[in-house]
Write a structure and sequence with these properties.
The complex is a heterodimer of chains A (113) and B (111). With 113 residues, chain A is an all-beta fold. Chain A contains no helices and twelve strands. In chain B, strand 5 and strand 6 form a beta hairpin. In chain B, strands 2, 4, 5, 6, 9, 10 and 11 form a seven-stranded mixed beta sheet that branches. In chain B, strands 1-3-8-7 form a four-stranded antiparallel beta sheet, with no helix packed on it. Classes of the chains: A mainly beta (113), B mainly beta (111).
């Protein structure tokens, strides 16, 4: 079945540091890939997405590139801010699965001054 | 624009009590979903409704039932709550070819 593997957290960075959160996946066919963010006490918000190989999703300074050859969708940001502190979830939907999302376990990011 | 609204936001139950979690969306989405979120396990799909009048089991349906009351509303029922059902529950909805939109969650504790 489909699965998503994320690096375990928490990840603690100083403000303005470079961020990478690794995500790899296993899926049949050609999945769409997503990063969701969850701020404390809130639901999940879509951060970015990519629907085919070599697509780059980007939003709010975050980027991720759909790499089919390595089955990866790593999240990056060049300079993190304290306000980026949240839990980040990598997820996928496979073709023919009624658009059900399969989530990774989440990575908590804490950014300090 | 309210998006996806879940009620209640918090609830404490005793083992064996029943409870219905409500979810409503005002975006005219066809598909709706219920997830539970547990520490270290991400979100797991309980039930989903691809369209009004249909419901299907997800990854962890045991102990739950759902009702797609109309296009807007999708409720989740615990008939006899158990401590293992202590979790944060999220409802989501979507329209074709678009990502899912999530509510703010219901935090449920079962003693």
């Amino acid at each position: 079945g489909d699965s998503v593997t994320q690096m375990e957290g928490p990840v603690t960075l100083s403000e303005e540091a470079f961020l990478t959160i690794n995500c790899t996946y296993t899926a049949t066919g050609y999945p769409s890939l997503f990063w969701y963010v969850q701020y404390p006490g809130e639901g999940l918000q879509l951060l970015l997405k990519a629907t085919k190989a070599d697509d780059k999703g980007s939003n709010k300074g975050f980027e991720a590139t759909y790499r089919k050859e390595t089955t990866s969708f790593h999240l990056e940001k060049g300079s993190v801010q304290v306000s980026d502190s949240a839990v980040y979830f990598c997820a996928l939907t496979s073709t023919g699965t009624a658009s059900k999302l399969t989530f990774g376990t989440g990575t908590r990011l804490q950014v300090t001054l | 624009n309210a998006g996806v609204t879940q009620t209640p936001k918090f609830q404490v139950l005793k083992t064996g009590q029943s409870m219905t979690l409500q979810c409503a969306q005002d975006m005219n989405h066809n598909s709706m979903y219920w997830y539970r979120q547990d520490p270290g396990m991400g979100l797991r799909l309980i039930y989903y409704s691809a369209s009004e009048g249909t419901t299907d089991k997800g990854e962890v349906p045991n102990g739950y039932n759902v009702s797609r009351l109309n296009k807007r509303e999708f409720s989740l029922r615990l008939e006899s709550a158990a401590p293992s059902q202590t979790s944060v529950y999220f409802c989501a909805s979507r329209k074709p070819a678009e990502p899912q939109h999530f509510g703010d969650g219901t935090r449920l504790s079962i003693l």
